[in-house]
Write a structure and sequence with these properties.
Length: 221
């Protein structure tokens, strides 16, 4: 499958050269792990650790392909509540093909889908929360340009192969029992317990959980 990245105004690089370089980095790493380009993708983001994980489907389970550093983000731990608060969201989001932006001013980007149904139920406001390149951010998750090229290509390939949407789950931190205890006094601890249910479900089976919104709460199944 030959995919292109579209026009990239931020760098001025040609589509073919940038796409070829990204493919070159991806293909060898995929082969080493026995993974396939175009496989369904799942993304986890950890704010405190400033890391983004890309998981790819391999048989009945998902395998970790790569962990990318988030090179710029803003705000503190806790969800985004309103437009202009400089916070990045926390919660369960999804990306459809229409949310991919190859002509981003930030090299490449995709909108994670904030506010989702849960956010809207609480009256939270804001828009255009992206994972993007260019390593600058106010409320978004900024990656290095090589990093976003790889992430974008893998998401694009999965969506073109038939994945309806890419789950992007954003956590305040890696939700181990120890980390959760260390943050137990936070005002956000009850909210984080709902996120932990999704974290634990994936850790148990390595399959992205289905998440609904019920009565202003996340319901993981």
């Amino acid at each position: 499958m030959a995919l292109t990245l579209g026009a990239i105004p931020a760098s001025g690089a040609s589509e073919s050269r940038v796409a070829s370089a990204a493919h070159g980095r991806i293909d060898g790493a995929l082969a080493q792990k026995g993974l396939s380009f175009g496989s369904s993708i799942y993304i986890r983001i950890f704010k405190e650790e400033a890391e983004l994980e890309v998981w790819l489907q391999h048989g009945a389970r998902y395998e970790l392909f790569k962990t990318y550093p988030i090179c710029a983000e803003s705000g503190t731990l806790g969800p985004k509540e309103r437009e202009g608060d400089a916070q990045s969201p926390e919660g369960f989001y999804s990306v459809t093909a229409s949310k991919l932006n190859p002509r981003s001013n930030y090299h490449l980007s995709f909108d994670i889908g904030y506010p989702n149904a849960y956010d809207r139920s609480l009256g939270r406001t804001g828009s255009f929360i992206m994972v993007h390149g260019n390593c600058v951010s106010i409320g978004c998750f900024a990656m290095t340009d090589p990093g976003i090229e790889e992430i974008y290509l893998l998401a694009q390939a999965a969506l073109e192969k038939g994945q309806k949407s890419v789950a992007v789950h954003v956590f305040p931190f890696r939700m181990t029992a120890e980390n959760t205890r260390q943050h137990a006094s936070s005002r956000w601890a009850p909210f984080w317990s709902e996120l932990k249910a999704g974290y634990d479900a994936f850790e148990a089976k390595h399959v992205p959980p289905d998440v609904d919104v019920n009565g202003g709460h996340y319901a993981v199944r």
